[in-house]
Amino acid sequence: MKEFGNYKLLIRESHIDSYGHVNNAVYLSLYEEARWEAITPRGFGFKDVHRMQQGPVILEVSIKFMKEIKLRETINIVSSMMDYEGKIGHMKQQMIKEDGTIASEAVFTFGLFDMQARKMILPTPEWKKACGLD
Q: Which of 53, 77, 108, 113 sits in a 20 to 30 Å window from 100, CA-based?
């Protein structure tokens, strides 16, 4: 696996549910935020996606919740490329607490989507760079 993103953030009040820990639906939003933070500086931000008419699309996700994350904890989201064959790639993202404990882990199946042709396409050189595959 090749790490291509590392995103540190503070858990805020809007992330918390009535049990006092991160809401399960929020995990997906935080993982997505970390992915955008990884690919944007590599030339594949929101404006680039619309200019090129090509962007990432999630096809499947498997997520594990291992340890609760509470209000005002700082976590680090590590994004790693597992594989990318043909049009389909797999990436692992982990939420890691300050003590090194893995709180959550998700595996995403994804690809590159042509917004005009409305179909999956092979990864372009720009997309490979954004994913850390260069």
A: 108
- Round to whole Å and give the CA distance between 5 and 20: 28
Which pTM does this prediction carry?
A: 0.96
Q: What is the mean pLDDT of residues 50-64?
A: 98
Report which of 58, 32, 42 is spatially closest to residue 127, judged by C-alpha positions. 42
pLDDT of residue 134: 81
Domain positions in the chain are 2-127
Contact yes or no for 81/2 (Cβ under 8 A): yes
DSSP letters of 60-123?
A: EEEEEE-S--BTT-EEEEEEEEEEEETTEEEEEEEEEETTS-EEEEEEEEEEEEETTTTEEEPP
CATH architecture of 2-127: Roll (3.10)
Instruction: Find out whether 118 and 102 touch, Cβ atoms under 8 Å.
Output: no
